[in-house]
Amino acid sequence: MNFRILTGQTPDQVVARVKRVIDDAEIVVKKGPFESHPSPVSDPESPAFARLQKTIAQVSPDAVVVPFLTVGAMDARHYVGLSPNVYRFFPLRLDSAGLERIHGTDERIAEDNYLEMVRFYAQLIRNGDVARDLSKNTPAASPPRSVDSEFAPRPPVMSRSSLPSTRFSIESSK
After folding, report:
1. Which pTM was predicted?
2. What ranges do the domains of the chain cover?
3. What is the rounded CA–CA span in Å between residue 88 and residue 107?
4. Distance in angstroms between the alpha carbons of the first and the last residue of the chain
């Protein structure tokens, strides 16, 4: 069995709950080899979130940015020690066919989505240019640019910022 644990819970609490729900001494419940604790909550009021929100608005002005609990495990869990705020955001627009391809047959993203993602990350890097923010006397290496107009924003099917996720497995056998 695979569980996604909420922030504030522990794997041991999940095991205890499963044992209470099953209520059968003949069924053994134990943790599997992959155990992960919930990631800490990233601050939606931080300057980092504001920078992310600003970038999303520049690339997709029609998007509404709100904190969101991601239910899948993401590689971001490996970066928790680097920053108090690790946001699980993926600038991808998905339609129903795209949603079905995630971790499925013929998994891929559309070429225009890929190019839009490149433009998003380029804009995020420009917005994070601290040399430009810290020194009024030293110009940035390149002038600020906006996202190319050929990729004008479209109404998003999925656009979000996210809060942490985690998962682990519990093996159950008789």
Report:
1. 0.64
2. 2-134+145-173
3. 20
4. 14
